[in-house]
Amino acid sequence: MAKRFLISIVGVLAVLIAFSAAWAARVGQSAPDFTATDTNGKVHKLSEYNGKFVVLEWSNRGCPYTQKHYSSGNMQRLQREWTGRGVIWLTVISSAPGKQGYVTASEENAYLKQVNAMPTAVLLDPTGALGHLYDAKTTPHIFIISPQGTLIYNGAIDNHPTIDLADVNGAQNYVSAALDEATSGKPVSTPTSRPYGCSVKYPD
Amino acid sequence: MPCVMLIFTARLNAQLPIDSHAKVELITEQNTAPPGRPLWVGVLFRLDQGWHIYWQNPGDSGEPPKVQWQLPSGFAAGTIRWPQPIRLGGGTVVDYGYEGQVLLMAPIQGTSKANAASIPSLSADVSYIVCREMCVPGKAHLTLALPVGGDGGSWRALFERTRLQLPKPVPPGWKVSAESDKVHFIVSVRASPQVQDATFFPLNPGQIEDSSTQDFASIQDGFRLTIKKSNQLIKPISTLHGLIILGPGRAYEVAVPVASR
Predict the structure, then answer these.
(1) pLDDT of residue B116
(2) Hey, how many other C-beta atoms are within 10 angstroms of the C-beta on B150?
């Protein structure tokens, strides 16, 4: 039974990967809908958030680039500010079991408390299905979806692609810039950038 | 000479980060620089098996090493000459970089009357990220006292070998053109003799889908590469800049205008 379940997961994954090139999230187009489960067992469906801005943040707590934004408090600051303004912030963990950054739900919940992280929810994606659907490359890698379900940003968190904590200050934060513009009805002036970080630790 | 080397080794070891998976050394090609000519220096990375560092365009993830030279006044370092990279990883995340051993070399020259041969010492701050399944940051402050005693030319062969791996201008007789459709760049090369295989390595990030297989096709008098555009690319680009690599020691730098189909 367990084996059959595993085979079906692999099958679904293979199909998703095969279509990922065609379906990959592109700015200006509809963001692909998905269903994923968070660390409290709650199921989230993107289309249920129609009418709200949604941020997807790929994360891996073992990755020095992710650490830069959590050790400095930068990521928590962004999460607090934007969820406070009604934005849905979904952190996604696509590390496969046995790979860096893979966590169980309870491990992640303990970690969120420890670092005072404030996302709306953390989605667990150990098969990498959601990661491949969006073609997430790095941790961090940020996607922003408009209330109409259109992808309006795909790229890096800011313009300082380093692991140096000191580089958080003075960086141009693309996420805040995009949300500032979009929430005041303006077009996003930097809708794409090269995401920087560690590679997402997908299953082999 | 053995005495000098010993002091060097001790000093370098003391500066190495623990568990960095990379041994990093500052080396020079010549014992002393010939008058009026640059002194070639380099940062030599020796990586643990399976670990890699990144090219100047790292591809989908990672970051190139950074070298900050500290030179006496009157001297300036030229840009790093990056040897041809390899493709790293697979699946949907592909990077460009180096495994095993790589030398990042740069020329150092006197800005006016100063002669590179008279540099008393030089140092460099090197920061890098070395990755396998995971990534580990590294930092090193490397120092070299000059002139290197005795047989200072012991690294000459390595510098010479590395030069063979530096990108070259396209061979005479090549004619490179590029066009773009909605999802691809198509690079056509008139080349003789006939080329069997080629891969494009972009110098600018975010233009091509690094993880996509590039389609190689032989055409009359040459070959054609069809390369998928990056999802990140939402505006047309005027020039495609990168390397066309045919094999070891056969990397050619191209900057070709892109025509819309």
Answers:
(1) 63
(2) 13
For residue A97, give the amino acid letter.
P
Distance from CA of A136 to the nearest CA of B (A): 9
Residue A15's φ and ψ, nearest 5 degrees, are -65, -45
Q: Assess A161–B contact: CB distance below 8 Å, yes or no.
A: yes
Tally of structural domains, chain A: 1
List, by residue range, all CATH 2.60.40.1250 domains of chain B.
2-166
pLDDT value at residue A131 = 98
Q: pLDDT below 50 — which residues of chain B?
A: 1-18
Cβ of residue A63 closer than 8 Å to a chain B Cβ: yes
Name every chain A residue with its beta carbon within 8 A of the beta carbon of B234. Answer: 26-28, 191-192
Note whether A31 contacts B: Cβ–Cβ < 8 A. no
Taking a C-beta distance cutoff of 8 angstroms, is the pair B252, B244 a contact?
yes
- CATH number of the domain located at residue range(s) B2-166 in this protein: 2.60.40.1250
CATH code at position A13: 3.40.30.10
A110-157 tens-digit pLDDT: 999 999 999 999 999 999 999 999 999 999 999 999 999 999 999 999
> Beta strand pairing status for A54-58 and A88-93?
parallel
Burial class (CB in 10 A: 0-12, 13-18, 19+), A76: middle
Would you call A159 an interface residue with chain B, using a CB distance cutoff of 8 Å? no
Give the class (CATH, top level) of B169-260: mainly beta
The ipTM of this complex is 0.83
A66 occurs within a structural domain: yes
Q: Do B63 and A162 touch (CB under 8 A)?
A: yes
Q: Do B61 and A138 touch (CB under 8 A)?
A: yes
Domain that residue A47 falls in? 2-199
Å between B64 CA and nearest CA of chain A: 10
Read off the pTM: 0.87
